[in-house]
Amino acid sequence: MAYNFSPFVLVFFLFTTSSYAISPGEINAICKQTRNPSFCVTLLNSKPSANFVTLAQYTINVAHDKVIDTINLINSLIKSADNSETKDHYTLCLVHFSFEGALGQVLYTQEMLKKGDYEGVNVGASGILTNVDDCILGDSPSDPRFPDPSMLPKYADVVDSIADIILSISRYLVH
Predict the structure, then answer these.
(1) CA–CA separation, 13 and 36 (whole Å)
(2) What is the pLDDT of residue 18?
(3) Are 165 and 44 in contact (CB under 8 A)?
(4) How far is CA 157 from CA 68, 128, 135, 137, in A?
(5) Which of 8, 17, 71, 121 suits 135 as a labelling partner, its CA being 20 to 30 A distant?
(6) 135 pLDDT more than 80
(7) Could you tell me where the DSSP H helices lie in 5-151?
(8) What whole-number percentage of the chain has pLDDT above 70?
(9) Is residue 129 scored above 50 in pLDDT?
(10) What's the CA gap between 156 and 159, in Å, rounded?
(11) First to last CA, the chain
């Protein structure tokens, strides 16, 4: 069975599907809500012609990859730790980045996005931020910050920035 589409229908279809793409102004508005707007703009502009849901999925995937990279780094830091305080710090960070922490929150965020539960996406992104902060700053405000000379704080900052972007996108998805 052959289908004949008029040029009008084709133009209408192309117009309506492309109209859902996020504009540069919307990307700027999303990124202004983050702590690192230039990082945000660079990341979001790497996925042109995306709508909000596609952009959220892309950003969640990037977060997943960066969390895995951070877990790999932490595992190597644990192996090379030269004292028990350092090893304890990295072991605690591993918990905050593993399935019980940031990785679990990334997977939860993906699940919520697939279900269309955009408030759940917001909650998941907040959970990622909390776990990253607990690794770097400690579980309690009274905990002294560990003087970490490794690359872990930089890796954690990237994950934190990406989770912040997901949080900002989720606000647009909710409305």
Answers:
(1) 36
(2) 37
(3) yes
(4) 14, 12, 11, 12
(5) 121
(6) yes
(7) 7-18, 24-32, 37-45, 52-80, 84-97, 102-115, 118-137
(8) 89
(9) yes
(10) 5
(11) 41
Asked whether the beta carbons of 55 and 22 are under 8 A apart, the reply is yes
Q: Alpha-carbon distance 96 to 70, whole Å?
A: 11
* pTM of the predicted protein model: 0.87
Q: What is the CATH number of domain 23-174?
A: 1.20.140.40
Supply the pLDDT for residue 142: 85
**How sure is the predictor about 150, in pLDDT bands with cuts at 50, 70 and 90?**
very high
Please state the φ and ψ torsions of residue 71, each to the nearest 5 degrees. -60, -45
Contact 114/106 with Cβ under 8 angstroms? no
- The tokens for 88 are 């304890």
How far apart CA 62 and CA 71 sit, in angstroms, is 14
Q: What is the largest CA-CA distance in the chain?
A: 73
Domain ranges of the chain: 23-174
